[in-house]
Amino acid sequence: MLDPTQAQERAADIVARAKRAGVDAADAVFAADASTEISVRLGKLEDVGRSESEDLGLRVFIGQRSASVSTSDLSSEALDALVERAVAMAREAPEDQWAGLAPQDRLLNGAPPLLDLDDGGEVSPADLREAALAAEEAARAVSGVTNSEGGGASAARSVWALATSHGFAGAYSTTGYGLSASVIAGEGSGMQRDYGFHSARHRSRLDSPEAVGTLAGERAVARLNPARMESAAMPVVLDPRVGSGLLGHLTGAISGQAITRRTSFLLDALGSAVFARGITVSDDPHRPHGLRSRPFDGEGLPVSPSAIIEDGVLQTWLLDSASARQLGMAPTGHAARGVGGSPGVTTSNFYMHAGHVPVATLIGDIVRGVYVTELIGQGVNGVTGDYSRGAAGFLIENGEMTTPVAEFTIAGNLKEMFANLTPANDLEFRYGTNVPTVRIDGMTIAGG
Known about the structure:
Layout: H1 4-20, E1 25-41, E2 44-62, E3 65-71, H2 76-92, H3 125-140, E4 145-164, E5 169-185, E6 192-200, H4 209-222, E7 232-238, H5 240-243, H6 245-253, H7 256-260, E8 281-283, E9 306-310, E10 313-314, H8 321-327, E11 335-336, E12 344-345, E13 350-352, H9 359-364, E14 368-376, E15 386-397, E16 400-413, H10 414-419, E17 421-423, E18 433-434, E19 438-446
Parallel strand pairs: 7-14, 13-18
Antiparallel strand pairs: 1-2, 1-4, 2-3, 4-5, 5-6, 7-19, 8-9, 8-13, 9-10, 11-12, 14-15, 15-16, 16-19, 17-19
Helix pairs in contact: 3-4
Enzyme class: hydrolase
Domain Metalloprotease TldD/E C-terminal: 233-447
InterPro entries: EF_Hand_1_Ca_BS, Metalloprtase-TldD/E_C, Metalloprtase-TldD/E_cen_dom, Metalloprtase-TldD/E_N, PmbA, TldD/PmbA_N, TldD/PmbA_sf
């Protein structure tokens, strides 16, 4: 695989070709990836996968007309043809007064921050197989586990580069490692499944296979013999692995595209209280070896840690350059680029700050409620904020988690859910988006 310097040169080369072809402006993305995945089931190797890819994307501007093209054929002849095709497409494209490269005076200058995203390691398929087998074996060893959907281990390395015609060129590489196990507890119609999973930029920071597998087994067994919930209004407590979805809904609602199209339930919320006082939600692209850390955004702008929600108040939209121009604002360094198409927006290491109370205290005064460990379906309306999803978890009775429960629905409106949310103090950085355990009062439960 190419190193970051070579990847940067590839991106810069296609931009130079486009400029020679007469375009007014251009940018290019080069992305390369190599990954190995091993899966096992019932102690036997089930699948070995190896993938390698190198792709190049070019976006050109002629006046206010633009076009994007991409290719995996990186020969000189193919690149010349790619430029020719992009120019022809741009000449026929409709004008877009908001399109264009990022403001030149806002581009990242100087060396990007060092974020320790690539540990330089190589892992053999044999080592991955042993890790996958160990994870599954630990899961199957948990009393009550009766079958397995398998264990898995993966290792990957990626390189990403961006170059623009107005002075930016940058690249960086990342490594990524994953471990998983998914098992079944119980028999017949009473079977329950659950999983354990962990990923990390550095292999040394990956949970042990035994820890991942044991967690999967214990989770599956804990779900056996679920009861049904009655229909009522009651507090809902979300486990961190499902609670992080709330920040995904927040991201969608405050993205520039949603605001410019007026399709957000938070359309007029900038500068106002969205969460309760004391709640802060931050985005940290500089977190060392973070799963979503990056030294610059998808348009070449610098990125920095920032509070999106501070003391409950919404501080900013997430803006790329096009949506920023349309709103008469400045881009925020949240642009995201794939190989094809125009930039969108994304967060990096997005998280809700920990609260001040332990989980036991958070649920201690709940006479009857539910602790949710699984959410099912996509019943969320980003325009109105209406929220309704299938769920499973555990009944909370008199401040204690008791019986497993399943086949019920939790419903509310995201505006009210955000306003009535209380975080515990158990924040851990295990995913790209992280929250502590959170409690939401006043949700509607529809039981079976």
